[in-house]
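Residues and backbone
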Amino acid sequence: MASTYSSTLNLELITTGEKSGTWGSVTNDNLQKIESAIKGYVSVAIASTSDSLTATDGTSSDEQSNAIIKLTGTLTANTTMSCEAVESWYIVDNAATMSTYTLGFKPSGGTATDLVSASKHLLYTDGSTMFDVLDDAGNITANGTLDVAGAVSLDGGAFVFNNTGADKNFTIKSDDDAANLFSDGGEDRIGIGTATPSTKLDVVGGIKATGAIDFDGGSVTINQSSADIDVRIESNGDANNFVSDGGTDKVGIGVLAPAAKLEVNQNSSTGAVACIELDQDDTDQEFIKFDGTTASDQSSSLTTDTSVGSLTGHIRVNINGTDFWIPYYATN
């Protein structure tokens, strides 16, 4: 009976009485194929869009018997490299020039796994499907630096950075920002646009919130550095519902450029609403309190002068639902 060959490595299986005088060379070929399967390396240039690794019975020169396979060449279209449809494993170094094309690796007639350009893959096949071990791995622990050139997808579990609570910083960079998001592990602070946050959350740049903002448990200070910074609050019908003019140190309600420390402008000829409504529930207290320097003439903000000039007009006010008129006079 003639020799037969193993299904996985194509080792020559000598029958009793066969290979007289050549038994040693056949055994050496088998041992070399076993060595290649454990530590062998071969470089294979891709020759077509549907290429196959060579697999030869008996001899040790076939490509498939190697543990490490380097694929080279330039793809001209989407390409598939095939091996025999038998159980095996491979370390594949994809050094092919791919451009925009794909390169799959599969058992003959089976299902391929796509190789990533300029990357190494640990693969195994059950004879019908090729599997990328690291594409579906269990727990992975990296004691050194983990560098990822492609996308990272986290799905199905929580992500915890610095689980031991050590003094470790976390940085996310952007195209033009070296600290787009920065977590200072030593100071317990978060910076957006800054790598040196001075508070629990320090934002260098604008903030936009489309939902509600709740400040609870502390004071709110705007423009703590006392710079020339304006604050403006819009309403449904008034673009200047509240304005703090940082350059002139004035506040406007209904006016963009207030002319006084506080200027109130009803800002609508049909608004049907008063400029100011005063409602004093503490009946023994005044509605308005004026503090100033009193003089007997009109040189100060308060005067005891009773001859203040001719009556010029009146201002209409509403008190407890009734309109009244307050007269005003021209200065002397």
User: Anything to note?
Assistant: The longest strand covers residues 311-319. The radius of gyration is 42 Å. The chain is about 5% helix and 30% strand.
